[in-house]
């Protein structure tokens, strides 16, 4: 059976994807079980001694100075969940919800949260049995954690809220009963332990960064085809050029392009047709490479966050509870804003290449890539649509992390807006994928019009797959269907997987 064992310390991005997209089962390690039980025993000692500890024997936020008696601890935790369930908007996608549950379980498995093992196992059972809480996409400030959306996750654990089970949306209690999962009566610290973290923003962002790695490679593929369609100059990709400015993304992009274009009869060298290309071709290593370096930075931050304890207070073995700020989403907020900008740039330069393809003054090809222009509009509005998407991305790329609105009567006087940053990055990713799909379609049309004299070892693979699903456009057809086909080829990684299978990994 395919499974992932979690201990709070070693979860990888690839394992995360296996659980959320391939339904791998999740188990706690033996070490994690011991740590969780030890941490819980400390919390129970605090309660028995009526020690003043935030969130255990006190209220929350501005109410941190209000003491709660031992007899009221269960009511306190239930009230926390039901009062904080203030999410609004459309439900988050199933894969995001699965990611949220996995990441929250992994954080609790570190053994610093004081939750009961039985409660943690309930969350893992929900994940393994495909009980997916309905979690609205909006309502988190990204500091004090993702309080509102995570509260919706916990509602189902206590037999409230709503969930998807067996493809049907239903009351949370019914879903738990159908899945044969006992519901939980929360006790001291548990409600806070479950909702006080960054797992919503991190799940959204982790999925986005994983897909961004592949999209950046596909940007190299689509641009290689465009380079051939425009008889681009490969001299600019010479390794010597990039070794003297050794940014890794730049070096790797130049290597990718030379690998993809190896053996092509469509490209040229410096001085053969012209001395140099426009920036959208000549500076591909620098532009794509910078985005790849940004994506790699975000991946590094995500790998840290998915193995972090992000709630408050944290319970340490020295029988110490420390109130800190690990729930604050700023490290993720800045990272996901950066990711959005990097993805927007991949789309920006792709749209510029589309313009070069459709503009006869720049391409030497029939206007708008159609032979009977005037009667036919060809790819005219493809470029319009690409321009609309990149313009929308420019609006979305405005950083969420520079904004903050104080909350909880100014006790929480700086917040990250990290969940908004993650959602924006995901939206930009979706737009960028569509723009690259348009370039893929346009470049293959341009190659056909130019006359395919033999493509590179890698680019020919991409061309052949596109042509397996689309045809050269002679007369106007309904274009969105063709764009959607190319987008699905990118989204499914069919092109990328076949290229890497035949010519080796891209960077």
Distance between the termini: 31 Å
Helix content: 55-70%
Average of the residue pLDDT scores:
96
- DSSP helix count? 20
Strand order of the largest sheet: 4-6-7
* Binned strand content: 5-15%
Number of domains: 2
Fourth-tier CATH superfamily name of the largest domain? Fumarase/aspartase (Central domain)
Order of SSEs, N→C?
EHEHHEHHEEHEEHHHHHHHEEHHHHHHH
Q: Over the alpha carbons, how many angstroms does the gyration radius reach?
A: 26 Å
At the third CATH level, what is the topology name of the largest domain?
Fumarase C, Chain A, domain 2
Biggest sheet overview: 3 strands, antiparallel
Number of strands: 9
CATH class of the largest domain: Mainly Alpha
The CATH architecture name of the largest domain reads Up-down Bundle
Q: Uncertain runs with pLDDT below 50, 5 residues or more?
A: none
EC number: 4.3.1.3
Pfam families: Lyase_aromatic
Family: Belongs to the PAL/histidase family.
Modified residues (2,3-didehydroalanine (Ser)): 144
Question: How would you briefly describe this protein structure?
Answer:
This protein is mainly α and 507 residues long. The protein has helices spanning 13-22, 30-48, 73-84, 94-108, 117-128, 147-157, 172-178, 190-195, 199-229, 239-243, 248-261, 279-282, 284-305, 330-358, 360-363, 380-396, 418-450, 459-469, 479-491, 494-503, and strands spanning 3-6, 25-28, 88-91, 132-133, 136-138, 162-165, 168-171, 314-316, 320-322.
């Amino acid at each position: 059976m395919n499974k992932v064992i979690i201990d709070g310390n070693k979860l990888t991005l690839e394992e995360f994807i296996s659980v959320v997209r391939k339904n791998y089962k999740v188990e706690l390690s033996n070490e994690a079980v011991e740590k969780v039980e030890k941490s819980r025993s400390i919390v129970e000692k605090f309660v028995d001694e009526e020690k003043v500890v935030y969130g255990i024997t006190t209220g929350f936020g501005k109410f941190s100075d209000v003491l709660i008696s031992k007899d009221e601890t269960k009511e306190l935790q239930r009230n926390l969940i039901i009062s904080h369930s203030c999410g609004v908007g459309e439900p988050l996608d199933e894969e995001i919800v699965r990611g949220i549950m996995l990441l929250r379980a992994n954080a609790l498995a570190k053994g610093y949260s004081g939750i009961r093992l039985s409660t943690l196992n309930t969350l893992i059972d929900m994940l393994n049995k495909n009980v997916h809480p309905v979690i609205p996409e909006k309502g988190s400030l990204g500091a004090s954690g993702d309080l509102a959306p995570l509260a919706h996750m916990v509602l189902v654990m206590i037999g409230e809220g709503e969930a998807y089970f067996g493809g049907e949306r239903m009351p949370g209690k019914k879903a738990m009963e159908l899945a044969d999962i006992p519901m939980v009566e929360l006790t001291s610290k548990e409600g806070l332990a479950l909702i006080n973290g960054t797992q919503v923003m991190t799940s959204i962002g982790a999925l986005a960064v994983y897909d961004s790695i592949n999209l950046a490679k596909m940007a190299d593929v689509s641009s290689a085809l465009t380079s051939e369609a425009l008889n681009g100059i490969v001299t600019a990709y010479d390794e010597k050029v990039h070794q003297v400015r050794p940014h890794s993304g730049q070096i790797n992009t130049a290597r990718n392009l030379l690998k993809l274009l190896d053996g092509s009869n469509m490209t040229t060298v410096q001085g053969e047709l012209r001395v140099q290309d426009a920036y959208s071709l000549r500076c591909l290593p620098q532009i794509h490479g910078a985005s790849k370096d940004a994506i790699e930075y975000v991946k590094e931050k995500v790998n840290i966050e998915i193995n972090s304890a992000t709630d408050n207070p944290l319970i340490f073995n020295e029988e110490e509870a420390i109130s800190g700020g690990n729930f604050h989403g700023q490290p993720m907020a800045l990272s996901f804003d950066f990711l959005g900008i990097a993805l927007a740039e991949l789309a920006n330069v792709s749209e510029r290449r589309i313009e070069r393809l459709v503009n006869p003054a720049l391409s030497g090809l029939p206007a708008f890539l159609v032979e009977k222009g005037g009667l036919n509009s060809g790819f005219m509005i493809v470029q319009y649509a690409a321009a609309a998407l990149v313009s929308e991305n420019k609006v979305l790329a405005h950083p969420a992390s520079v904004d903050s609105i104080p909350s909880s009567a100014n006790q929480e006087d700086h917040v990250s807006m990290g969940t908004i940053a993650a959602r924006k990055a995901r939206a930009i990713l979706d737009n960028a994928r569509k723009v690259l799909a348009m370039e893929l379609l346009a470049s293959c049309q341009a190659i056909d019009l130019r006359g395919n004299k033999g493509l590179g070892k890698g680019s020919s693979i991409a061309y052949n797959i596109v042509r397996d699903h689309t045809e050269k456009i002679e007369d106007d057809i309904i274009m969105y269907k063709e764009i959607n086909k190319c987008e699905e080829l990118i989204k499914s990684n069919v092109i990328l997987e076949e290229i890497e299978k035949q010519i080796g990994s891209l960077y």
